[in-house]
Specification:
Chain A: Residues 35-237 form the Transketolase N-terminal domain. Chain A: Keywords: Thiamine pyrophosphate. Chain A: Belongs to the transketolase family. Chain A: This is Transketolase. The complex is a heterodimer of chains A (241) and B (320). By secondary structure, chain A is α/β, with parallel strands linked by helices. Chain A has one domain (10-239): Rossmann fold (3-Layer(aba) Sandwich). Chain A has eight helices and seven strands; from the N terminus they run αβααβαβββααβαβα. In chain A, β4 and β5 (154-155) form a beta hairpin. In chain A, α1 (10-27) crosses α7 (184-192). Chain A is globular. In chain B, β1, α2 and β2 form a beta-alpha-beta unit. The longest helix of chain B has 15 residues, at 5-19. Chain B has helices at 5-19, 36-40, 52-64, 75-81, 83-92, 120-124, 137-151, 196-209, 223-236, 252-259, 281-288, 292-299, and strands at residues 23-27, 45-47, 68-72, 98-101, 131-133, 155-158, 179-181, 191-195, 215-218, 239-243, 264-268. The chains are: A alpha/beta (241), B alpha/beta (320). The A-B interface holds A 34, 76-77, 83-85, 88, 90-91, 93-103, 105-106, 112, 125, 128-129, 131-132, 135-136 and B 24, 43-44, 46, 48-49, 51, 53-55, 57-67, 69, 84-85, 88, 92-93.
Chain lengths: 241, 320
């Protein structure tokens, strides 16, 4: 999808894909659970993960960013399998919170899983939401932070660092878990954990690599948005790991 | 005087929730102690704290989960602080959320500019798919709340802070697109068009002095409703004075002027200045130049007040 005239948010899409595959695997057969990609700019990663897991039947690649197709650079509800519009950062967390609360009110055990970027944590709305989630003890809310260390203009650590992130979530009243964000098995285990007895929401800090799998761009803030030609795309596909 | 809009809303919603388990009530720390919904339906009442944006977005998740959430906070915080949440949740997503916004206009009086909202029509009417209502009086508020609950469609309901006068009567289950108040009115006169609590009060005051003037009251103000209202207005009159507690930019008069080409549409509004002084609602309105004298000025030269016409003050009664 980066090999189109529009290009795509490649680095963050590659960092979050394993998280999304694990989360979508968990929710695919559970209509009471919902995954919300709050960092909606990673739409290419979402479309790819949804297609890989069979949720999205149409191949998004030929149509990404194209006129008359709904695979826009930030996802919306016109895309099969996408419930909420995201891309303006911060909104996915409260959408997932509302979804999780609705399941609790209905006496169901589904999860609301919000997948955020670490740069996105600079939005005040997410902390407003975490405050509410903790106060209401919405234990079936799972917030996953794709901690790839980059954002649009550079590195999170240089722009607005987030020291003691786990402690921050703890202080807000969350359970926390830290995990390798590319260990799909470990992520699945976290998502499969029964939260019926929990009384706090869960924050999963998933350490990831921006541009994961493509050595030329791995870990580089410049991979945030990439436009490449077909030849480079073919070359990169040969070295992807 | 009847219940203030916000009190009527709370009572009506509490009653509706008795038989509709999908109804939820969310407040952002401005619902007051002893909220009737919280007393009657504590499991479906959520005071989320001072978190307006999160509240509207949460409501989107709740609506997608099968509920009909009503959220309420003061108009400036709902419309301006949570504007993007309203655009995305009520507009783009079309989630069945109702936002009830008291303290619209300058009804907060001495609370000052931060607590006033003279911009809400401009913002919310620009979001397609949202039904916009400014009920006048308790009966209209109750009817609008019922409509929102029954339809499950996105609604924005503007109201003031203070006790409200009696609603104008109407026939049918909900306020009509145009509620005609024309007893004693003559053809070929300037038609008063009232919007919201203050606009309607002022039009009624003018009509008490000059009953030959026709008066059209509008409760629903979103574009589809206004298009229908404009068609109905155009069938009967050629000259209109629209009275609204809103800025001129983005107000109802400007929308009607576009919908009524060839007709004369004048606006009486709250102007472009900032209400920086304290005082009662009426005193702040006077400072902004939104009063009966302004309506008469807009009616001139076609209509003039009868000799000795009283400049009826707005009746106000604070509720807290």
């Amino acid at each position: 999808m980066a090999a189109t005239p529009t290009g795509c948010h490649l680095g963050g899409s590659l960092s979050v894909t394993d998280i999304l595959i694990a989360a979508l695997d968990r929710t695919a057969d559970d209509p009471d659970s919902e995954v919300v990609l709050s960092k909606g700019h990673a739409a290419a990663g979402l479309y790819a993960a949804m297609h890989a897991t069979g949720i999205l039947t149409e191949d998004p690649v030929p149509h990404y960013g194209a006129a008359s197709h709904h695979f826009t650079g930030h996802p919306g509800p016109s895309v099969e399998g996408v419930r909420f519009p995201t891309g303006s950062l911060g909104h996915g967390a409260p959408y997932a919170l509302g979804w999780a609360l609705s399941r609790r009110l209905s006496g169901r055990r589904g999860l609301g899983i919000a997948v955020l970027g670490d740069g996105e944590l600079q939005e005040g709305l997410v902390w407003e939401t975490f405050q509410v989630a903790a106060a209401q003890r919405v234990s079936n809310l799972v917030v996953v932070v794709d901690r790839n260390g980059g954002q649009n203009d550079g590195m999170v650590a240089d722009i607005s660092p987030q020291p003691e992130l786990a402690a921050r979530f703890e202080a807000f009243g969350f359970e926390t878990a830290e995990v390798d964000g590319h260990d799909v098995g470990a992520l699945r285990a976290l998502f499969d954990t029964d939260r019926a007895e929990a009384d706090r929401p869960l924050a999963v800090l998933a350490d990831t690599v921006k541009g994961k799998g493509l050595r030329p761009v791995e870990g580089k803030a410049a991979s945030h948005y990439v436009t490449i030609d077909a030849a480079r795309a073919a070359a990169w596909k040969r070295i992807v790991r | 005087m009847t219940l203030a809009g916000r009190a009527a809303y709370r009572d009506e919603l509490t009653q509706i929730a008795e038989y509709d388990p999908r109804i939820l009530c969310l407040e952002a720390d401005l619902g007051g102690k002893g909220h009737p919904f919280a007393v009657k339906h504590p499991d479906r009442f959520f005071n989320v704290g001072i978190a307006e944006g999160a509240m509207v977005d949460m409501a989107a998740g709740l609506a997608e989960g099968g509920y009909r959430p009503f959220v309420s906070t003061f108009a400036p915080f709902a419309v301006l602080r949570a504007a993007e949440s309203m655009k995305l949740a009520l507009g783009y997503l079309g989630a069945g959320i109702t936002v009830v916004a008291p303290y619209a206009g300058v009804s907060g009086g001495w609370f000052g500019t931060t607590h006033h909202c003279l911009e809400d029509f401009a913002v919310v009417r620009a979001i397609p798919g949202v039904t916009v209502a400014a009920p006048y009086g308790e009966a209209e508020m109750r009817a609008v709340v019922r409509r929102a609950a029954v339809t499950g469609e996105p609604h924005y309901i503007r109201t003031g802070r203070n006790a409200a006068p009696l609603s104008l009567p109407w026939v049918g289950p909900e306020p009509p697109v145009v509620n005609w108040d024309v007893h004693g009115a003559e053809p070929d006169r300037t038609c008063l068009v009232s919007v919201g609590e203050v606009g309607t009060e002022l039009c009624l005051a003018v009509r008490r002095s000059l009953p030959t003037l026709p008066h059209a009251h509008l409760c629903y103000l979103d574009q589809p409703h206004l298009e229908r209202a404009a068609a109905e207005l155009a069938e009967h009159y050629d000259r209109f004075v629209v009275v609204e507690e809103h800025r001129q930019a983005g107000g109802i008069a400007s929308a009607l002027a576009l919908l009524l080409p060839g007709r004369e549409v004048s606006s009486v509004n709250a102007g472009e200045s900032w209400p920086v002084h304290g005082g009662s609602h009426e005193q702040v309105l006077d400072e902004l130049g939104l009063n009966e004298a302004a309506v008469w000025a807009a009616l001139a030269p076609h209509e003039v007040p009868p000799h000795g016409a009283p400049a009826t003050p707005l009746e106000q009664e604070d509720t807290e």
